[in-house]
Amino acid sequence: MNDRLPSPAGLFDLIETDVAAFDALRKAESVGRPVGGEAFQNRIAEQTGRVVKPGKRGRRQQANSALSP
Any idea what the Cα angle at residue 37 is, between residues 34 and 40, rounded to 5°? Predict the structure, then answer.
């Protein structure tokens, strides 16, 4: 374990060394999406059986009904 983390604080060292990575992690944490490339996200989706990529934004379009012009 000591070879992976330089100090007992471990992950907190990332805050000071890689601000961009830490910000990306915090942003993904707030929306519940994994951080990583497309291949990583595809692998996570396959393993969990869930969609991990964001869907289309906004309301779904309604099908034309008999009352609409």
Answer: 70
What is the mean pLDDT of the segment spanning 39-64? 87
C-alpha separations of 47 from 35, 39, 41, 42, 53 in Å: 16, 12, 10, 9, 14
Residue 43 reports pLDDT greater than 90: yes
Say if residues 53 and 45 touch (Cβ distance below 8 Å). Answer: yes
For 15, phi then psi, to 5°, come to -60, -40
Distance CA 20, CA 67 (A): 52
User: What's the pTM value of the predicted model, to 2 decimals?
Assistant: 0.49
Contact at 8 Å (CB) between 13 and 6? yes
CA distance 44 to 35: 11
Does the structure show a pLDDT above 60 at 14? no
